[in-house]
Amino acid sequence: MLPLLLLLLLLGVCRVVDANTKKPILEDLRDIRTRYQTVFRESGSDLEIKTLRRWYFEADKEGALEYCIDFEHHGHIVSPRPGLRLDGALGVVGPRDVDLITLYKSSNGKIDCMWLLPDKNRIGQDKEWRTDLEESRAYQGLLEIIKEDAKKSKAAVPTKVHYYDYNKVQTIG
Questions:
Q1: How many whole angstroms separate alpha carbon 101 and alpha carbon 112?
Q2: Cα 87 to Cα 46: distance, rounded to the nearest angstrom
Q3: Hey, which of 18, 50, 111, 170 has its CA 20 to 30 A from 29?
């Protein structure tokens, strides 16, 4: 339950949006809390969440908007059936592996919004790609969302971008 508590502490006025359709998936903090309680409860200790790659768009000044694009792998995830109650009372979708590309928007240390894309081809898991990922339709689409969102917020797009490839972390020993 600790990961859920940490996630909720990091959430500000948050919503989760489908990056393709721009339609909300989860409208508010209550929806997010209910869904993630169900995911953690139903998935149990077999749930595994890994960040495979990350592009972090660091704010140019304190308090400004920051963005992060993560290629994520969710192993053995159990979630509420789409379109039904978020608490899982009307059924859940059984254990499966899901690869996602998530764009996080944050300000003042809180996550304000998340945009989700399925990574159907699991390109985030490819250990050799980087430039190809940056040229992918998914990545470019998320960059457009960053530009649109920053413009809507009357903010600048962060210019300092940091890349992390967690597929290539060296193990010592």
A1: 17
A2: 19
A3: 50
